[in-house]
Write the structure tokens for this entry.
Amino acid sequence: MPKLHVDISFSYASKRVLDGISFEAEKGKLLAIIGPNGSGKSTLLKCIAGILKPEGKIIYDGIDLIHLRPKERARIVSYVPQSSFPEFAFTVEEFVELGTYASGGDVEKALESVGLIEKREEFITNLSGGEYQLALIARALAQGSDVMLLDEPTSHLDINHAKEVVDLLLRLKDEKVIIAVLHDLNIALNYADEILVLKHGRIVWRGSPDEVSEKVIEESYSVTPRIIRINGIKAVIP
Ligand SMILES: Nc1ncnc2c1ncn2[C@@H]1O[C@H](COP(=O)(O)OP(=O)(O)OP(=O)(O)O)[C@@H](O)[C@H]1O
């Protein structure tokens, strides 16, 4: 089974933001990246997505993604950015169709997967923040890529829609390499298979959600939380 190998560093001008980040991700395991604000999580996803050009290597299935042209890379990697207000008044269907540019993917299936098929004719600018987040995910799904990167995919969603997105990722994880930046530690600890903790642009901890201790959170976020575990369910109380 092909793996994604990441071994990179990145600087904005002279400011080192990612320093020797090295990890692997594979299908079947939902990988969550957590860490405090400014630790480099979004920058890491942007490097893998090809928006930023890091030093080092990003290899998937023997192919070095850093040196691929954008259209070739888009066949392999899709990226769901942090949600912002849509810039153009496309219909939902047209917006999701943008994802098919590189690979000619399935718009209808993508809309169905996120529950937006009924809204296909509506303008994207009329969606709620949560629905727009789902449209961003549908656009990435329509790309049909093997690797999917998501930057805080549940941040604008109510508990019901957040659960829908998590369920979708759990359904997709056997067919795609999925890497999600998550601020919601409860989602990360309860649904991810592996966790990477970033701090000051370095991986300071990695392991399974069951191994995340109060000390790990304290050392990364400088806050002393309580982690409660009941019948396999974990809750992080700040
Ligand atoms: N375009 C940019 N130019 C210069 N510095 C930047 C730029 N974008 C981000 N940074 C800096 O890089 C560092 C990492 O930012 P990044 O957005 O990757 O962190 P993050 O962990 O995703 O943060 P958050 O959790 O707040 O979204 C921060 O110090 C940030 O100020």
About this structure: The first strand starts at residue 3 and ends at 12. Residues 129-142 form the longest helix (14 residues). The chain has eight helices and twelve strands. The CA atoms of residues 30 and 170 lie 7 Å apart.
